Amino acid sequence: MKIKIPPYPNFKITDEAFNRDVASVTVTKNDSLGLSNQLIMITQLGPGEKRVLKTRPVRFKGNLFVTAFPNPIHLFLSLAIENYNQSETIKEVNFAKCGRQVGKDIFVLDIEENGTHDCYNHYVKYRSSSIIMLVSSLEAFLNHIVPNDFKYTTTRKGKLIEFDKDGIESAKISFKEKLNEVIPQWLGQPDFWSKHDAVKVAIEELYENRKNIIHLKTNSEDDFTRYFPAIDKMLDLDILTAIDATIKFMNIVSPGFVEIQPD
């Protein structure tokens, strides 16, 4: 699976506005001297379709590399998918090559000079990275999709409280509250999650795994039990279901937000 990564922001510009505000004041410049590190770009993405984009160029060895800035939500989601695919390739292709068969269905990945096996290390690394980036994409989406003028109301200790956009994005509102309460209230659909329970369950399990990975709490009886509850859950998590649930949720809330590229 691969998704499209659109530019952000991405505004249409009419031919009238282009001719009036752009073409008439165009200045040709052939070097980067004096240019800001944040530029506005006007380009044509399709037949007769001009767009206004923002760029964040990269300077390297005296050169300026300019292109459209990617939407971070799609970028993080794409990275989560790529890392998941990498982990699956390692499991399906590399494990048998890396491992030494010691029984009918048992393979040992021998310990190398550094004390662990790169093949296994990469597998764990890509899976954990996939989970972290998937939740990062979801968190960014939850913040992005709620309008600046929206007010979220809820009850705390028996009192009615209102949160503006800054409050919603602050630590006062948890990920789960944004997901379970803010989104249905903004959509005006109190029963939103009753229609999409499987999606909610998958996302909440994903978030719990991400929290375990980030914190890796160390209160345990000994080193043989430290880390392993979190690692067990991370290795057993159905990441593909979590990816599918994430994309489905985004597209339910904002139809067409995520586009899957054909293979």
Describe the structure.
This protein is an alpha+beta fold. It contains eight helices and nine strands. The chain has helices at 15-21, 72-98, 118-145, 165-169, 175-187, 197-215, 228-236, 239-253; strands spanning 10-13, 39-46, 49-55, 58-60, 63-65, 100-101, 107-108, 152-156, 159-163. The strands form four sheets. Strands 1-3-2 form a three-stranded antiparallel β-sheet. The radius of gyration is 23 Å and the shape is globular. The mean pLDDT is 89.
Helical stretch count? 8
- State the order of secondary-structure elements, H for helix, E for strand: EHEEEEHEEHEEHHHHH
**What is the gyration radius calculated from CA atoms?**
23 Å
Average pLDDT number:
89
Q: Overall 3D geometry?
A: globular
Structural class: alpha+beta
Distance between the termini: 7 Å
Our estimate of the beta-strand percent is: 5-15%
Uncertain residue segments: none
| Helical amount | 40-55%
Give a quick rundown of the structure.
This protein is of the alpha+beta class.
